[in-house]
Structures are given as C-alpha cells and as structure tokens.
Amino acid sequence: MINRLDLRGRSLSARELVEALPRAEVRVEDAAERVAPIIAAVRSRGADELRDLAERFDGVRPHHLRVPAAAFESALAGLDPLVREAIEETISRVRTVHRAQRPQGFVVDLAPGAQVRQRWVPVGRVGLYVPGGLAVYPSSVIMNVVAAQEAGVPSLAVASPPQRENDGLPHPTILAACALLGVDEVYAVGGAQAVAMFAYGARGTEEQDGATLCEPVNVVTGPGNVYVAAAKRLVRGVVGIDAEAGTTEIAILADSTAHPDHVAADLISQAEHDPAAASVLVTSSVELAGAVEARLKDRAEGTRHSDRVLQALAGPQSAIVLVDSVEQGIEVVDAYGAEHLEIQTADAAAVAERISNAGAIFVGAYSPVALGDYMAGSNHVLPTGGCAHFASGLGVHSFVKAVQVVEYTEQALGQISSKIVAFANAEDLPAHGEAVQVRF
C-alpha cells in the first residue's frame, strides 16, 4: 500500500537526502503553457471571458460573477448552527494569534540629528483565492481573510469557483464564512482565471455596461492546484504572491513511543485532500513502521474518501522512511522541509526546537495537523514542495511592507559628508558625492 525507503546505515548529504526522499512531481512549467493564454484572454475580455471559462472548466455559466448581497444572507441563514459555532471559534483563535504577529516599527538615533525610522504599512488591496475542487474550504477563507484584516488591509476581495449545485455561485459555506468575517466582495471565479482577474482587474458587469467588475489588487494569496500556482508565477511582479502552493503534504517523525493509530490517522488525514497528496513517516522503529502499515490499510479502506486516500498513500510521493535513530530522522525531515511536520517522539518539544525547515511543526501526540487545519490559531496556508527551506506560511507579514524613513539635520549630514564623497568616488559615481557637497 505504501512504499518503504530504508536509509539505515547510509550517510547522505542534505542534497542527497532531498533527491532520495519521496516528493510529488509538480510540473508548474508545463501548466504555465496552458495558463498563459487564459491570463491573456481574461486581461483582454474581462467578464465575458470569465463567464466563458466558468462554463468550460466548472460546467456552469454564472448569472452573477460578483456574489449578490442576498446570497450571503441566504448562506448564513442556512448554515448548520454547529458549523457556525466552529467557524466562529476558528475565527476567534486565528485572529488572536495573527494580532500578535503584527510587526513593530522602530526608531534608531545614530547620532544627534541622524535618525532612521521604520514603519510597517499594509498594502492597499488584496485578492484572496479559496479553492473549491475536491473539498470545500471555509477554513481557507478564514486563514486568508483574518491575516489580511489583522494587517490592516483596507480593501480585500475573495474568489472561489462557481458551482453548478449552487446556481453558479461559490459553495454556501464559503459565502457564510465570508459573511461572518464581514467580507462582501466575493467573486464566483475559480482557478487561474481568478488569479488573472485579481492581477489585472476585469471590466464588464452583469449589465455589460463596460464598468470595472473587479479592480486590480496588490497581492494575491491562497492555495490552489498546479494551474493556480502557474498563474501566480506568471503574474508575479505585476502583483505580489504568497507562494506557488502545491499539493498538501505531511511528514511525521516518530519513534517507538508513538501510537500507531495516531500516526496512521494523521497520514490519512492529509491523503484525504488529493490523490497527489504526500504522506511521509520517518521512524527509527521497525515495529512502529509495521504497525502503522497495518493500521493504514484498515483505516484507509474504511474512510469516506478511500479511493483518493489509497491512491495518495500508494503514490511515489508517499513512503515510510526507516532511519537508524531520531538524530538521523531530524536530518531527514529537515532536508525534506515538509509543509506540515509532526513530532511524535520522546521529548518531542526538544526535538521540535532542532528543526529549521517546516511550514508548521506540531509537537506531541495531541497536536495533530488536523488541529492546525482548523482551530490551533496558526495559519494553514503553508509552503509546500520543499519551499519551507526559504519561505514562511501565510500571516500578517504577507500583507505589509516596511517603509524606511530617513531624517538628518544639516549638522548630522555634515559630520559624514567627506566619507560619503569618498565612498561615491570609490564607486565612480561622483555626482552622488556632489549631491552632498552642494549642501555645504
């Protein structure tokens, strides 16, 4: 059912580990060739093209590209009270954590009259994408919107695919989550075309009067499939992006103290997302590996999305990796750079502190990834495909920019003017020095 990779007795460099470990092959370059014409068409034809693409890819031609107010009211009225309670609890916890993320400005006095200040400024407008393929993700609405709101972004829009079952509107639970967050600018637009709409804006309305349907944004964030990732790559530079997020992945570092049912259930929880999802167990215990394999078979066959789960677990992106020790396991998971990393070992907190490369780390038996998907308070939009080596998960920092403010008096500039002139001449840029000298 799931592959085994035996690294015991092998001494591999970080690069060799990256090459040896299982990973889903994501061909963003190939997808970009298909996405480029879509972006160009949306840019030139606006709302008309968005409707045509919805009919082509989603099987429905939306009556309303921008969701009308009545749809939010209806979605909220029809929301299961227990689901509403869960969404509100998640919003509260995520907001509390993200409020603490707000970066602080500073003032540095380098000398009398020589001051540099830094302040953090939110971007003016963001576009937040919420996928709607194999599952419904109101949790992604919360993760995107709350981070942008806590950053102080004054204008934000959400896009999610139209659904045939909902008369061409996004899923009602998505709309209800938007309503609970106070977001009323939502578009029934999916995939790469949503990214194009956000990047370039789109003209045309339901009445086709040539007005702007959606204004361009400054930053586009949110998870999606390979086509969404490709679209982000193609518009990067026109707008900022969070990351080229790929299919979800979980890695678990476990020793003999881990409970095989916990490990198996957590591997399956991420395999449930997509047939290409990656589930990787790294363990120093052969006994645990065998027990997890047995539990995986039983649990996978009994879960609702068993076909999807079984395909993901059997794929080349998933494996049980045997190592000599937890020490070697730390090296392996650090080389892997998982989106989600669970530590189920003795002294798990200390082991977690030694990990540098992971989107989010879940410590101990009672901190499963599923907790982070919903109510941990952390953000679940995280770097995939090894991008955790250089990228962070979504947060307030994704929506703010640092502005440096320099203020020197005449005396403060004069004290270092000769040094500036010397530096400018050393770079063969004498006009730079002259711009200082002219003031004296």
What does this structure look like?
With 440 residues, the protein is α/β, with parallel strands linked by helices. It has 3 domains: 3-26 and 247-377, Nitrogenase molybdenum iron protein domain (Rossmann fold), CATH 3.40.50; 29-241, Nitrogenase molybdenum iron protein domain (Rossmann fold, 3-Layer(aba) Sandwich), CATH 3.40.50.1980; 409-437, no CATH class. The protein has helices at 14-20, 28-45, 47-57, 69-77, 81-100, 138-151, 172-180, 191-200, 226-235, 260-271, 286-302, 306-314, 326-336, 348-352, 369-374, 410-426, 430-437, and strands spanning 3-6, 106-111, 114-122, 125-129, 155-160, 186-188, 202-203, 212-214, 219-221, 240-241, 249-254, 278-283, 319-322, 338-344, 358-363, 400-408. It has a 6-stranded parallel sheet with strand order 1-13-12-11-14-15, with helices on both faces. The chain has a 5-stranded parallel sheet with strand order 6-5-4-9-10, sandwiched between helices. A 3-stranded antiparallel sheet has the order 2-3-16. The longest helix is centred in the N-terminal third of the chain and has 20 residues, at 81-100. It is globular and about 80 Å long. It starts with a strand and ends with a helix.
